[in-house]
Amino acid sequence: MPTLEKIIVQDFRNIAFQELSFSPNVNCISGGNGEGKTNLLDAVYYLSMTKSAFSPSDRFNFRYGCDAFSLAGTYAMPSGLSSVITMSVSSSGEKKVRRDDKPYARVSEHIGLLPVVMVSPSDSALVSESGEERRRFMNAVLSQMDREYLSDVQQFNRLLAQRNLLLKKGTPEEDYLEVLDLQMSGYAQRIHSARKAFAAQLTPAVSRFYGILSSGREDVCVAYRSDMDQAPLEELLRGCRERDFAMRFTTAGPQRDDLVFLMDGHPIRRAGSQGQQKSFLVSLKFAQYEIMKEKYGFAPILLLDDVFDKLDLGRISNLLSMVAGSDFGQIFITDSNKVRMAGILDTFTSDRAYFECTGGTFKEL
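The structure assignment produced for this chain is given below.
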């Protein structure tokens, strides 16, 4: 499995320049709020996904006063050899991604080489916000495991934008719409099939991990909802043509797909406490981890950002007993409470490294 041996970060968020070497097992980063712990984890995520886990635009990733940032990671690969991944981004929007100093023809070709799973407080949006957040979650997971899925989503979104532009003009040519509908249908069917299969894998895994975290106090499940459960996209679009003309956008299709999160048969958004929702989200991400591990045949890198927040000591202990097991690979954990993190982790594993962060500067303890 790939493990990050060394990282070099320059002008990323509040990190001016940092070079760090890591343990192949557990890496613990402590520090106060706003000091840069999350930024380091986001740099690790960026090296895998070629984008931030938090910022939709790269302009939010430049250190204040800078017009570029760069990242470099040295990885021990499953082949036994090392590989160096470098990324540089400028304020002009130019993004360069290289593997062993060889540029990719397309940035998207890098996705999936270094599988990664991040658990962070921002995951709360998966419960509290719109279906767009949950579709983004599905896309992020499936794109790492299936390059054709990523291409299908990109092509579908391109055609959807064309269709919506025609509808927005108010006088679309129906013949042209039919051509677009036919082209979109093939991509949509493959997207729907992939998401449906993924959701079917999620429920038993989420339920099992949640049972461990909560000591079996509640039952949870994940349900997939899609317009295409009723009919193929081409048929749906034909049936809602008049509505689309009136609304001036496409009202059916995979762009409306959603995941429904339930606890004891009720939406967890309304029925779950903060601790229960946090436990569910951690379980969801661990289920993602397990599915990706099965697909790849090795463990992804696991990033746990402020994961102890809103969890009681019992759930924290259950969580760490899981991640310290042999089923997990390289792990990065952040916490503002160094004593709490060390006190709990030291009882589970001695193979770990500790780092402390102050003002974007990190030192190994």
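Interim note for the steering committee: The longest strand covers residues 3-12. The chain has eleven helices and 15 strands.
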